[in-house]
Amino acid sequence: MSANLEAKKVVVAEITEKIKASKSVVLVDYNKLTVKEVSELRNKCKQANCEYKVYKNTLVRKALNDLGYNQFDKDLNGPTAVTFGADETAAAKVMVEAAKTYDQKILLKSAFVDNGYVDKAGIKALAAIPSREELVAKMLGSLNSPATNLAGVLNNVVSALVRVLNAVATKEQA
Fold first, then answer.
1. Which of 91, 167, 149 is nearest to 123 (CA)?
2. Is-contact 91 83, C-beta < 8 A?
């Protein structure tokens, strides 16, 4: 076997492992981005715990096909960047925001989430979902709210009782 074929097999194995390790994978067309914009986008991805990579379409296609997913074949044409996300929504959020920020320089193609194919509309829907951390914070706030309200009501009852007793004591002294 040629060294080139071996190198390609290594890259396909790397892509396959990244797909398996990621909760989401978003494919985008990045054709019109400048080098500066690509650097900015990579930094935004790092901040969101994602990885932005450019691979040859044939290698990404081979990795997805090896995993049993051939729905992505039509999307793996032209310049394609792959964003690997550590959660289900982060990569979609970064890429949807980038599509807005870079005005038609980033075009959403498709995504791989929860072992399935997601189209452009699905990527936008994923981006609209709050992150896991946001959902947990909202839930904890909701659980904490009744206790906070109860404490406030009990505090008001005690305060009212103290005011009444103070008024009675003031009245008796007079």
1. 91
2. yes
